[in-house]
Amino acid sequence: MARATIKSIARKTGYSVGTVSNALRDAPSVKQETRDEIHKAATALGYRVNLDGLKLRTNKSYRIAVLVSVSEDAAEEWEGVEFTRILAGVSKAVQGSRYQLSVFSISDGDAALETLRSIVQEGLADGVIFSGTRVNDPRIAYLQVEGFPFVTYGMSDSDQPHAYVDLDSQTAALEATARLIRLGHRRIALINPPDDLIYAQQRRQGYADALSEGGLSFDPALIATGPTTAKTGQLAFTALMQSPNPPSAIICANEAMTLGALSAAAKTGVKVGQDVVAISNDDLKLSQYFVPPPSTYYLPIGETSRLLGEFMLKALGGADPKEIQKKIRATLIERQPDTPASGRARIT
Questions:
Q1: Cα maximum dimension of the chain
Q2: What's the CA gap between 294 and 327, in Å, rounded?
Q3: Of residues 177, 128, 135, the one with CA closest to residue 158
């Protein structure tokens, strides 16, 4: 078979040689749909570009940076386990394009900002994906000033629009709380991430809105915050159940926190499903194996991670940030009846 060329791709697609050439180097002058069509035809024909030469001509790295947060407790705690699935989804989305992924591990906000400066100033990547958006996030402000393409896993409070994919955390918390209120619960606790995270604030707001709509008062004593780890869930559950007026239901921000809560219950003799109800958010299909398996709000991480990759490619192609934003609704998986607690199972 003859080697595929720009001319043979032009014949197959019906586009001019100039259009094909521009599309293959991802020139923004060619519409994204046309670029996709030409790239698909090039792949089908077995076209191989000289990437080193293309990098020199375009002054691009053809790499997408993905920032992965690694806490000091990562070796001991189940935290950030979803990143393997996120990376898999992003990788699948960019397959067939010229872009490859580069993973950068960061430990905190200052390290993330320094890493971003290196990526931008040293040309280590052409775009970046990161999560854990914060109030007045300096990473977002820096990238916007630099005009550098990025996509966040999470919304932000920035006045300037940017590309993002996010779970509708506020609605998930509102629905979970409202559901428990309808079932007769009046003391509902929330184990939440730190308050400086945008999605933590969204969850707190949804929780508060549901309480207000249900005619219940907001009690700060029923809110516990901390890293999204099993240890946080364990400590928070114990403290909540030791309080003078313990909750009959607890909403956990993710599966790791829920696992910690179930562990604390087992150690202290509290029967989950009888003495107290536990509901999990951000279900990754692991909590179905917990004992007892809690009701959860399912996070379609395959869809979210795929969209992160697709939106990154569109951002690199010059798409309007307003056109590459998506909030995804969580789906309730009911594994327990979650009826009101039979009594006040306070830990002494």
A1: 80
A2: 24
A3: 135
